[in-house]
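tmp note - Histidine phosphatase family protein
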Amino acid sequence: MTETTIVHLLRHGEVHNPDGVLYGRLPGYRLSEDGALMAKAAAKWFSERDVTVILSSPMQRALETAAPLADTFDLPVTVDDRLIEAENHFEGLTFGAGAGSLRRPEHWRHLVNPLRPSWGEPYKELAARMRAAVIRARNAARGHEAVCVSHQLPIWVLRLHAQHRRLWHHPKRRECGLASLTSLTFEGDRLTDVAYCEPASDIAKGPSVAGA
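out:
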């Protein structure tokens, strides 16, 4: 008999970002008031689950999302740097035309290859580090459930990789809402199912904010 283990990838809640910048790995970006409610909604969703391991990205917004979950299960939050946000050339800038960074020619060379992508961390490297973090969580929670708190792009690329789909994509096609869950079920070491849900969907007021 093989053990069933579930690794949940929890995206952080909404971030306080009044300037609408791509905050990426910049420090100091905390959850908004709604983001804190989203974190609590996610923790409530987990309350009857068999969670024994919690890992998190080192970013403040991820750790704040993990906190209610840690309180629910009286578990420590272990930081895993592999769950961090993807690198992005446009970090700290607003994106788009008009007053955004796209109107400045010095940025154009970073847009030439969407398949890699040329503006940031290669999708293959992103998928590889996220897969390693998931394997760590799976091995630590054998026969139970683990939660990894991360960010939209890393979670979405891992899901594409797990489902043997191409990694390059249009950002608007990501199914990874704020405080959403992408759940990977393993029988032993074999991935058998990928599921998705949004425990905090009633709190989100609109599309995902910049920075993810």
